[in-house]
Predict the 3D structure of the following.
Amino acid sequence: MELTWGKEAAGSYFATNKSGQVVATARKEGNVWHVEVAHDNRVRQVGTYRQAREVAARVLEDQRWESVRAEYLSEGDTLRFYEGEGTVTAVEEVGNNLGQLRVTYLFDGKRNTVTVYPGSTFERLRKVEPEAAEEERAAAFVDRHFPTVAAFLDAEESNPCGTRRSGWERPGPGRHRLPCILPAGHGGLHRDILRTEWLESEAGQVIDLHPFTAIVDVIAGTGVLISPPAIEDVTLSDGGATLHDALLADALRRLVPLGVEALEGEDGGLSVEGVTPDGRKVFSLYVSDCITTEPDFEEVAVSVEALRQAAGL
């Protein structure tokens, strides 16, 4: 997205889009730049003004896309890949007992085909405004599964958590207004009626890598990556490879452009912080370009403990 940056005052800048609307701001407080973006409820912290501009541009570009399960793709959809964009030409059932789907798309003038499991996600260019899409999806889900208000209420937990995402007070319909329906006092991630999970954390920045979730502390340079519950995993081959293994590799690749990488364990594999009570593996991460150049041991220890608690360990 093309942005024009202007200076409001010393250490305070704003960005406008082609229509002249202010869509992002960057403010320096001490040695830290605070970045805020329109339609986004987070304040991101970086070390330089250049990084602030890059973060704002990336967030605004990401807002143009949505994560969509393979079974919801249709002909004509525009998909985003690391190498560029492609157009869906067909979505067909493979016809095996695994329920796999064959997605065909045009990329760089060439036809490509990928076979995936239901639940596999793609990044699709939004067809409608984000909140309108969320409202339609929520309404369709409720109409399909809960034909009456009574049935909907009966399906909820007797004492639900009720937590909503940050910014739920914002007017208008949308997923941000849907409360968590898990029992009060539950640990780990929240879950709404659409079975979408999220995490509210004061331990650091939350990055949605559906179905994984990362939390990173850009000050101390620490982080964790939370996997889906083990019960939802599926074996893909006789060699033992699983669906979560494939999705984990993709999640780690998506973190690299953000300057976040996985820590290596003593056995040469990924370092595992632990496993939550509901069976989610929690992997260790580090931020290669953290704000604190050389955080001391105590600062790192405090950060890691906060991240562990946020992850449900």
